[in-house]
Predict the 3D structure of the following.
Amino acid sequence: MKRKPIHLLSLFVVLLFITACSLPGVGSDEETVSVEETAPSEAGGGDEVVMTDEPMPVTGTGLCANAYYPVREGSTWSYKSSGSYAEDLTWTDTITNVREDGFTLTSVYDELTRTQEWACGPDGLLALQMGGGAAGGLTTSGAQLTVETQNVSGVTYPSEISAGSQWSQSHEFMGTMDIAGQSAEADGNEQTSFTAIGMESVTTPAGTFDAMKVEVQTTININSTFQGVTVPVTFTGTTTSWYAQGVGWVKSISMSDFGGITSTDTIELQSYSIP
């Protein structure tokens, strides 16, 4: 009986990793590589970071207008993640239901669909759930994770970003994991901090972009309980992400530690469409 909670937790880890991975700047998100030495060569060119305070071209309207995340109805981005805990992943993000104070982001994988609500405010854009939906749901073959975000604070994409900018976001959550008719309870919290480094040229399958280089530090604490046995797990990491003005999140390179399991991950934009 003692092995079952571990087995359930391992699947929980994979699904929560997918959730984190699909948040901009949060991937296997997040991890332990020497950014200054590794990231430029991975970016394809090793161009020097350029400090700039030039005005940013804003995309969108009202509170949802943002230079580094185009909030427009029907905008889509396709990504590929390689080197993560699981096999390589591909997915497409689509923005729908754009409102004055928010919008819906839907991520579609081969066997999984995640919806996530976002809020737009004077300080910028904030992801309201880790898993998506009012009671965020993740469904994959043979398993379902339902997460309800209880407390949210901070900002995911500030209304203005320049070299040296710092910001943060946090989520508290609770939920259940159902696997083959067995259920485990789960609760925890996520803390993420961001620091903008400067502009840098980065190459992806979707093209070459002048992008803002951002370092991301993330910690996710999870308690999974099955048949009275609670197993705590902590996910930590440092990611380097690149955001292009008028395009959005284009690439991340990260290395993570999740309950003693280490992983290196690269996420790249494959294609995109901004109406």
The helical segments are 3-21, 35-43. The chain has one domain: 3-273.
